[in-house]
Design goal:
Blueprint (H helix, E strand, L loop, with lengths): L1 E8 L6 H19 L4 E4 L6 E8 L2 H12 L2 H10 L9 E6 L3
Antiparallel strand pairs: 1-3, 1-4, 2-3
Length: 100
């Protein structure tokens, strides 16, 4: 099993409620549109970071989802709408292999 994690740092504390609202809406749209089980949450201590994560059975699944997102104009529109929330260059992706 693999866990995909994306983090993004919110520009300032005043934007946090709006950024979290946007992230929650985007996550719901992704889950509905692409039949995924992506989760979103706000880091409580240490920084103004929002985290998305999803567990998948193999790396091919991550690649398939990424390809679908990359080719979806609505997804790019979502990203354009939300660009005001993030510190430039702060979006970071990690894939973790989970051994059971």
């Amino acid at each position: 099993m693999y866990r995909f994690i994306r983090t993004g740092t919110v520009k300032n504390a005043a934007l946090t409620p709006s950024a979290m609202g946007f992230a929650t809406e985007l996550t719901g749209w992704i889950n509905k549109t692409f039949e995924t089980t992506l989760f979103v949450g706000l880091e409580l201590f240490g920084g103004l970071r929002i985290h998305w994560h999803m567990d998948v059975p193999n790396l091919q699944t991550i690649e398939e989802i990424n390809t679908k997102l990359s080719n979806d104009k609505d997804y790019w529109n979502w990203l354009e709408r939300g660009k005001e929330f993030w510190v430039e260059g702060s979006l970071h992706d990690v894939i973790i292999k989970i051994d059971k």
